[in-house]
Amino acid sequence: MTERRMTMNPSPETEIILTEDATDHGGIARLALSSDSLSPRSKQLSVRHLATEETFHNLAGTWDALSVDIPFRRVKWCEAWWRHYHRPNTELMILVVEDNHGNVVGLAPWYLERSLRGGRAIRFLGSGEVCSDYVTILSQSGSEQAVAGCIAAWLTSDFQGKWDSIELDGMTEGDVFIKALVAHLEDRGALIDRHAAQQCWRIEFPNTWDEYLARLSRKRRERVRAFVRRMFDAKVATWHLAETDAEVTRGYEILIELHQRRRTSLEEKGCFASKTFAEFHREMLHQLWSEGRARIHWIEFEDRPIAVEYDLIGAQTVYVYQTGIDPDAVDHSPGWLSAIASIRSALEGGYASFDFLRGDEPYKATLRGEPVAMQTVLVTAPNAAAQLRRRIRRSIRFTKDHLKQRLNRS
Fold this sequence. Notes:
The protein has 410 residues and is α+β, with helices and mostly antiparallel strands. The protein is 37% helix and 31% strand. Helix 8 (245-265) runs antiparallel to helix 9.
């Protein structure tokens, strides 16, 4: 065994002990962190780099416990995404942080993608067109700084030279863990680019539907009440919640049809044009619905579906993942009908909040959603090749933006 010691800034009392043991986990290097600031139970932390699909099964219970029941963080979401989206140029990169008793205190649900253009990029499982929100590195509460420091030290020592960038998307702006990780990596020579992303929008529910309506503007409140009376109370429109597997299947087909028809009417491609996206969500919807973690529902008008919504469900929150409306029924405001029915059913079902997820569409604020600031973070590794690639990429972006501005002025 070889051992090297280094002091990790900015905490002078924290010492990193990097060990390499050929008998440990198949030769996978471990990194240990000891600090007087940690509890006695977790005086020493170590990192394991796991790259096999068995990891999902082996860590399922611990993984989900650390996810705090946010759908995009749970193991089934990440595992299914990997099965559907992994390619020959990608490999799993799950980092497990353990204390000296072997207890998992943190977990980075990552993968590594290699390409000529982007080099070796680390990203969250669930990235890309699936557009996972509220992702982060999982950690026991109160252990964020120690776990972040441990991962940062491992990335810039044992894994140094094996990655070029970390491209993180779908995190909240105030994410404590991401802040800590970025700070540690920046101290170790990494370059950081932060950008604001489209916001998520969330309604924190009051106790009753009438209290919720009271939050709306007078004009909007009257319109909602009129919708309910004229469409739902009069049975002109009906709200259907899938309650059997067959109904879930039907709901999903309605979703694909209405979403794609609406996108086509707007001269857009639509999410379900991607076969991989469609198959991933077909699996996820059925699996999560069977566990009470997803629902799909639609509005029928004159015996035909005119709006549909696919939701993910956390411990206390309903997350609106995808919707569709009939472009031939826009005169009946299908989107508003669906949103009203969905919000009311969630509130009266006992949920504490309702999240529209990413996207700054005006109706979310109108329905009294509050913005949740989101961010993207690009970390460039502390090596010359990676930082040269960053400079080239930034120069190309600057040139494109400059040309676009000139064209807009002409």
